[in-house]
Amino acid sequence: MTTLPNYMVNPRQVHSPQPSYSHVCVAPIGDGVKLVTIAGQIGKHPETGEIPPTFAAQVDLALENVGRCLREVQADIKDIVRVQQFIVNLSSPDSTRVQAYLRFMGDHRPPSTVIGVQALAQKELLYEIEVTALARTSISADPNNDE
Predict the structure, then answer these.
(1) Which sign does the torsion angle of CA 44, 46, 49, 54 carry?
(2) Cβ neighbours of residue 58 closer than 8 Å, sequence gap 6 or more
């Protein structure tokens, strides 16, 4: 079995990341499966770089960015195996996140942890979501396999 190298991806449809990281890391792990790790996605508009002032708008944009990252590496929501959500001021009740998250995930319910934080990387940010997925790969880890 040949091990394929990990590769990083920064989808053009997602805002540019800071120079210290990539949005997505894909690690082929064998038998036509790849581990997809998506860095924390935020509510930052991919074209303008603007961060909306409302929590609900930031959640919607962050989830859209997760979807863009998944599509860029030929993965799907159903491939998600773990989610971490970071929320500033978690003590304030707001059902908009849950509603947006459920719409985004459909009937898929991977393990998810919600973490209340004092602040995120930029003072305007209120929400961030990290995702891990296992997806089938079109590039076989076995060079003798014509998948």
Answers:
(1) negative
(2) 42, 43, 51, 52, 125, 126, 127
